[in-house]
Target: Immunity protein 50 of polymorphic toxin system
Amino acid sequence: MNGRPLNEVPAVELVNSMVTRVIECRYGDGSLAALQLVFAGGRSVVLTVWIDWVLVVDSRGDDALPDYLWPPETIGVRDLISGLPPEGAPIESVHESRSEYDDLVELEFILHGHRIKAGMWAGDLTLDVQDREV
Model:
């Protein structure tokens, strides 16, 4: 298992990024391991929680699952949003919530008619996906 990713991505850099896949990653016991956003061109970001109860946004140059999701054979993946165009759909907006210590604890974004929230609660990754209210 490699160390913690050091490249947290500012939320504003995600706005207008073209997303081709939104992937939920779960361990064999059903617990949520990560949320991965794959972008047109093949790069991705992985959202997960480390032991210090901070939501981590890990920017990656490819769409492979990171090796810190261990052991890899126990990770199940599924697409959360169907019908994304092959060229991707833009992230329309991003809102981040921070703790009193300025640690990232929640990231909410609007994508292809969905409101997606990834957050941290009691050291665990949380995920909420809803159709956006019009």
Observations:
- Residues 1-7 have pLDDT under 50 and may be disordered.
- The two ends are 43 Å apart (CA to CA).
- The first strand starts at residue 18 and ends at 26.
- The chain has one domain: 11-131.
